[in-house]
Amino acid sequence: MFERFTKDARAVVVGAVGHCERSGGEWVEEAHLLLALLDREGGRAAFALASLGLEGRRDAVERSLAEARRCGGLTRADADALAGLGIDLTEIVSRVEEAHGEGALTPGRTAGGVRRPGRRLFTRGAKDLLSQSLRLALAHGDRHIGDEHLLLALTARPGVPSEVLADHGVTYAAVERLLWGQAGTKAG
């Protein structure tokens, strides 16, 4: 499938691996793909993100992603569901961190911070996102996967990255409308 990726989309995937490595992670996650999209300049995704007001708000996105990782990768919807059962997620996180150290619930954290050498693998969610980007490209009549398809797939999938994007006004409908217009025609 990687042969269908444009130069910009490939750069996003390579950038996601770099984010994973710099953070000491074992697995490339959807959040790494989001951060790599934010790094890009000049592509259709960068145009969409800037047009929707996300330019210059990277720190806020990173803080939101870090807070979600600290809570085991749970979304606000997950926290609300737990609250409905009488479970206070903030209290659980505090107690676990008190007993096991800050960030103890962070997904992909390795014991003692030691990581196995070698290539970074993609989580099931990240792989599914890449597959979904292909389906979205084909649905828009595109033979190749661009960075805009990766962004659209991120906004379409439930989870922390789409929640963080939506908090900043970047939704599936907004990206779709901006890049393809109301009738689904290409923009840019």
UniProtKB/TrEMBL annotation:
Residues 2-185 form the Clp R domain. Pfam families: Clp_N. This is Peptidase. Keywords: Repeat.
